[in-house]
Design a protein that fits this description.
Length: 187
């Protein structure tokens, strides 16, 4: 079995740790992708020069919150994107990423189940509709935020997500339903 296959398929953390030091970035990529790689090895790989390796570390469910916090400051937006979507990312790190210059990173923050209602309220005012779309579908979004979004939102897909959010109040749901009727009559 060659090193690439071994990095992808082995369940032995010691072998994965050894392969994480390989000079071939493809081998390190598969080590970072492997679900049997330990948090300690992933922490070492988080400093890899190859951004595709760092992306796989950021996406691995074994990556520690501390390593994800470190990667949240990565220069590469794809790395930050994967950090924002990882379920081990802390609310504190998500708060920092909610201010990221890249809208795809903010969209991933809006969709993360660890994102707090306060962060979601902040993101609900984002200029990018996909970020607001993510906020509208996140079950952590408060009824108050959904109500405020319903008043200002122009995008139909975002309004749809607001109506279907489990925290949407009956009052907000009725308001959006009435708007749909009015818009249908006007067209």
């Amino acid at each position: 079995m060659d090193k690439l296959d071994l990095a992808e398929t082995t369940t032995d953390p010691e072998i994965l740790d050894e392969l994480s030091k390989d000079e071939d970035s493809d081998v390190r990529f598969w080590v970072a992708e492997n679900l049997n790689t330990t948090p300690e090895t992933l922490d070492e790989l988080s400093k890899d020069e190859d951004s595709s390796v760092r992306c796989r570390v950021a996406n691995n469910p074994n990556t520690s919150p501390e390593t994800l916090d470190y990667l949240s400051r990565d220069e590469n937006r794809r790395v930050r994107y994967w950090v924002a979507g990882n379920l081990n990312t802390t609310p504190e790190t998500l708060n920092e990423l909610s201010k990221d210059e890249n809208p795809s990173v903010r969209w991933k923050v809006a969709r993360n189940p660890n994102t707090t209602p306060e962060i979601l309220d902040y993101l609900s005012k984002d200029k990018d509709r996909l970020v607001r779309y993510g906020v509208a579908e996140n079950p952590n979004t408060s009824p108050e935020t959904l109500k405020q979004m319903s008043i200002n939102e122009k995008n139909l897909d975002v309004k749809y997500n607001i109506k279907n959010n489990p925290n949407c109040s009956l009052e907000t749901w009725k308001y959006l339903s009435a708007l749909e009727i009015i818009e249908a009559l006007q067209s």
